[in-house]
Design goal:
Length: 240
């Protein structure tokens, strides 16, 4: 949830936002569907199709295939938990997907991976996505625990352990495929900056949708939404 507040207060507000979002079956189903989408073909799993054809190292190829299979399994786990909520999720626009937003900044999906440099760039992108997932999963686990959804907390914990392992893959592959250590560090710094911008845009889009659809409701949230949109404008929700 985007905030104009100082960091410590913003963290508290985000915690309350997530708590209210997952307090209803529809809110839980919607968030879990979004998380599943981020792991699936529209998210991380889709990235692998760009890079598998350009891997020139059998050891790395094995890691990539394991990584891909894990992300597909994560998608199915989260979809199962969404279905278990017993409520139809809100269908959110692609504008609320982090990878779609990040693609607007990087153009990754519009250019094929053809060489080692392309693999390097792809795994920089995957690394920042894994870093974000590890941070966000902790917050989501706390929210679902408060809601009493123990089974979903277990799924998040299982997936989080995989994501920590995937982060090691990202470190190893970017180091192997980087033209130099300086290039790796520079590329990672740039990708983190672009991801942070995309994440902020995604938060604003989600905040608008969740409040507008009353998945999160109340005068405080409507007031904050007005302030956010006064500062940043109404988010673009037109992405196909």
């Amino acid at each position: 949830m985007p905030s104009l507040l100082p960091a410590p207060l913003a963290t508290l507000v985000e915690k309350q936002f997530l708590k209210q979002l997952v307090s209803t079956p529809r809110g839980r189903a919607t968030l879990l569907t979004q998380v599943a989408r981020s792991e699936g073909t529209d998210g991380e799993t889709g990235v692998f199709e760009h890079i598998l054809r350009s891997i020139d190292d059998d050891e790395v190829l094995k890691l990539v295939r394991v990584h891909q299979a894990d992300e597909h399994r994560h998608e199915q786990l989260f979809l199962a938990r969404a279905q278990a909520q017993g409520a139809a999720p809100l269908v959110t626009p692609k504008s609320t997907d982090l990878l779609a937003r990040l693609d607007q900044h990087t153009g990754f999906h519009s250019r094929p991976v053809k060489d080692r440099h392309g693999v390097f760039q792809a795994y920089l992108l995957l690394q920042v996505l894994e870093e974000r997932a590890l941070r966000q999963f902790d917050r989501m686990m706390a929210a679902f625990a408060t809601a009493g959804d123990v089974d979903t907390v277990k799924v998040f914990a299982e997936v989080k352990a995989d994501e920590a392992r995937h982060l090691l893959y990202c470190h190893a592959i970017t180091k192997r495929y980087a033209p130099s250590e300086a290039a790796r560090r520079e590329g990672l710094e740039m990708m983190r900056r672009l991801e942070a911008e995309a994440f902020a845009e995604t938060q604003r889009a989600n905040f608008h949708v969740f409040v507008a659809e009353q998945l999160v409701d109340g005068p405080v949230w409507r007031f904050l939404l007005g302030k956010v949109e006064q500062r940043f404008g109404t988010p673009d929700l037109s992405m196909a």
